[in-house]
Amino acid sequence: MNDSTYQPAETVLDLEELKSRCLGNMDLVERVLTKFAGQLDRDLVELETAIASGDASQAAHLAHRIKGIAASVAARSLFHDASHAEEHALENELDELPEYLARLQDDRSKLIESLERRSREQA
Amino acid sequence: MRVLVVDDDLVTREIVVEDLKHFGYEVTAASDGREAFELVRTGMYHLVVSDWQMPHMSGLDLCREIRKRSWSGYIYFILLTLRGGVDNVVCGLDAGADDFLTKPFQPQELRMRLRTGERVLGLESRDLMIFAMAKLAESRDKDTGAHLERIREYSRILADELSRWPQYCDLIDGDYVQLIYQTSPLHDIGKVGVPDSVLLKPGPLTPDEIAVMQRHTLLGGETLNSVAHSRPEALFLNMAREIALTHHERYDGTGYPRGLRGQQIPLCGRIVALADVYDALTSKRVYKPAFDHARARGIILEGRGTQFDPDIVQAFLNREQEFVAIERQFHDHGPAIAGLPLAESLALPTSPLPSAS
Known about the structure:
Chain A has 123 residues and is mainly alpha-helical.
């Protein structure tokens, strides 16, 4: 990773905010982040399928769910892009969705990267 | 206190469940509205925290399904959503949700909302206690069946009707209607002080026994007065006292215990007087059969301006179909009998018109 692409974890994931929502319970933070990563992966795969099959309604549902988990863990850029993807899906603007899928996948990569970096720092 | 948390989003659900456990709640989780509805049907959950958008059954539909049915107690429903905006709040509240929380939220915020829910459920427990007290007092009188359930419905209907009239709209508001619904079942609470030999006597009462029976108004009024005196902020106690004391007064001043006349009789007492007599007429007693609505209606009309406040008789006429529906809903006697001469059916020696006790 070069310096120009490096993003501090706080940009993609506000860990302090998440800790506050978990009442400072770090075990819960860890469990939540594990569930978050798994759920996000599944939802992104399903979203890709929904977009490929032209199912705007299912795409809207999945984008909404991604928005929800992003809100819960304070993953701001993911929340922002999922919100836009949901709006386009609700408007049946299927042509716009591949671009937002790419953004969401990029958000996901950065999140996983920041989580892995955090794990390494803790080790 | 048990809380049911409903969310298809595993991440949010995990956080909410664990936070609420931390706050001391006993938490059960469901992943969609259908699963949640089955859990609500067990009767174990009176606090529900639900996401809006879920597969199979949304939070909004879950709330609507819950509100469509009668439950053993109120179910306080908090809707969680990512949807902000007034339209969505209105839509959620219109479906019957009690509160609305936009994601993301801080755990303390949800805790405060749940405390409000607990307070509301606590008030309902108070209402249940009032009704339980009234039922206990009534339990000695084996003739009365669902009398209290009907009385409070009749009283509510009459108060609601009057609240729509210009001359009453300043006197009767939604709180008044709710209060009369809660307190009218206490009208005969003083009967706890009437001996069985009088209360349960199958035949006509002697003049001395009538006097003993009539004392139930004073006993009830004095008991509730002493409680109301120590808790002046408890408005329901004041109304309960007035009803217990005055529901046998007559509009022309010939009633008991004090012979009050017209507007001297508190409005709640005048309302319950008609509700109580209508119920006595349409119910079977040891001394009379149940009269049908037409017969009871005729007797109520005979008492307009003498036994009953003419305005309340008019309110009764305006909403009489609801009286019929309530009587059918809480039916607990044999077939109603029409056309029997009043003198043959009612063993009430002191009054030309029926009295309820």
